[in-house]
Amino acid sequence: MSNLEGDTSHDAGSDRELVQAYMRRRGEQEFRVLYRRHTPALYRMAYRLAGAAAAEDAVQETWCRAARSIAQFEWRSTLLTWLTGILIRCCRESWSSNVGVLTLPVDAEPEEPEVENYTAIDLERGIEALPPGYREILVLHDVEGFTHAEIAKALAIMPGTSKSQLARARRALRQRLESRTTLADGEAAS
Questions:
Q1: What's the pTM?
Q2: pLDDT at residue 130 tops 80
Q3: Contacts 24+ apart (CB under 8 A), 113-119
Q4: pLDDT higher than threshold 50 for residue 113
Q5: Cα angle value 17/86/60 (rounded, 5°)
Q6: What kind of architecture, by CATH, is found in domain 1-99?
Q7: How much is the pLDDT for 87?
Q8: Statement: residue 132 has pLDDT above 90
Q9: Which CATH number fits domain 103-190: 1.10.10.10, 3.40.50.300, 1.20.120.340, 3.40.50.150?
Q10: What is the rounded distance in angstroms from the CA atom of residue 123 to the CA atom of residue 132?
Q11: Residues 132-152: what's their mean pLDDT?
């Protein structure tokens, strides 16, 4: 089961019931349950997509936008998929306000790296350095466990686009990790 389906202690029907109750009464209690249920996953994604400094703001803005537009949600996906789409738009807006987004060349096909040589910190730094579009797909698919169909719904793209972006993101991450290992090996030899 992917994380888009949310916590296993509830089902999509209960999300729908809570949303309907919230819309009828604008009840704080129903909103609070939804917030507590989905915020941990949203924050984890925002942290990986936008970094610690922007994650909290992105999640807060996601919930503000969701509260304003919940009546237009058509339940063609899970609530968390819909919220993820809003979160990603918030993160993108944050990126567009930042100058100098790092882009990495992805033309050369690197050799397969030895993954066991990389630490979690190396991987986190490598993911942070990816261009935003690559980082989105890689985090959603490889870290959060979303399917390409779920990513396509959340990002309003075709599943094939998700697949090709993931391949490019993985290639760029490998290149980054290999160049980091090469630099570390060179420093150790000096």
A1: 0.64
A2: yes
A3: 113/174, 113/177, 113/178, 113/181, 117/181, 118/177, 118/181
A4: no
A5: 85
A6: Orthogonal Bundle (1.10)
A7: 94
A8: no
A9: 1.10.10.10
A10: 16
A11: 89
